[in-house]
Design a protein that fits this description.
The protein is an all-alpha fold. Helix 6 packs antiparallel against helix 7. The chain is built from 8 helices and 2 strands; from the N terminus they run H-H-E-E-H-H-H-H-H-H. A two-stranded antiparallel ribbon has the order 1-2. It has a single domain, classed as Arp2/3 complex 21 kDa subunit ARPC3, CATH 1.10.1760.20.
């Protein structure tokens, strides 16, 4: 969701802004280990895809916030969590500055919700599931879908918590929670389906580029047929 200006009080906005700035600064340093000449173009493509997906907003009746796809798990699984934080932050900044989608004073809040929490929680769920599920393409996609689904209502519920602490609009917290949770549980289904479809498509053609698929079990080559790098990565 994109939080507008004035929806949260100054202390809450400043706190989330400081958290977002610190996380982005750390991501700038840590993402160097994830990016190279092969993965950098994929990061750009992922950011462009997320930007387009987030521009399709679903208005929430009675609330000045919108619901939409996030794309945090999609980006994290493809290019790594630290790079995903940067991709998501760039998307949110462009939307706020050029399209007035989310307030400038609320940019820190939006980055915290979608570029920090959704990435960290979603990728953490993905890694946890990937560790216990079979190390196969199906296992990776199952972990991806569940993580993508959970990341959406988690971000919505975190915003409800922020609103309970520093909301400035005269709307009951229960009304905000009901509206955001109900819509984002449905949006999460679309998020999971799109994330699985995109990650699955990349796995089918270039599994070596998928950050989250580094631990896939090598496939057994056909007799008499040389094993390619892509087949081993599958």
């Amino acid at each position: 969701m994109h939080v507008p200006d004035g929806f949260l009080d100054v202390p809450t906005s400043v706190a989330t802004g400081a958290l977002a700035a610190g996380t982005v600064a750390l991501a700038l340093r840590r993402s160097r280990a994830e990016l190279d000449d092969r993965t950098a173009p994929l990061a750009g493509l992922a950011a462009a895809f997320v930007f387009a997906g987030q521009m399709m907003n679903f208005p929430l009746p009675g609330l000045p916030v919108s619901g939409h796809l996030i794309g945090a798990v999609l980006t994290a699984v493809l290019v790594g969590p630290w790079t995903a934080v940067l991709c998501m932050t760039v998307v949110l900044m462009v939307q706020a500055v050029l399209f007035a989608d989310g307030g400038l004073t609320a940019l820190g809040t939006n980055v915290t919700l979608m570029a920090l929490l959704a990435v960290v929680l979603g990728y953490g769920v993905f890694r946890g599931l990937a560790a216990v599920l079979p190390r196969t393409r199906a296992g990776i996609l199952t972990a991806t879908g569940i993580a993508a689904y959970l990341s959406v209502p988690a971000a919505a519920l975190t915003f409800v918590g922020l609103f309970a602490l520093g909301g400035t609009v005269d709307i009951p917290v229960g009304t905000v929670a009901a509206a955001l949770t109900g819509v984002h549980l449905l949006i999460g289904l679309g998020e999971a389906a799109i994330t699985v479809a995109v990650v699955g498509a990349v796995l089918a053609v270039r599994p070596d580029l998928v950050h989250g698929a580094a631990r896939l079990r090598p496939a057994t080559p056909l007799a008499g047929r040389p094993t390619t790098t892509a087949e081993v990565a599958r």
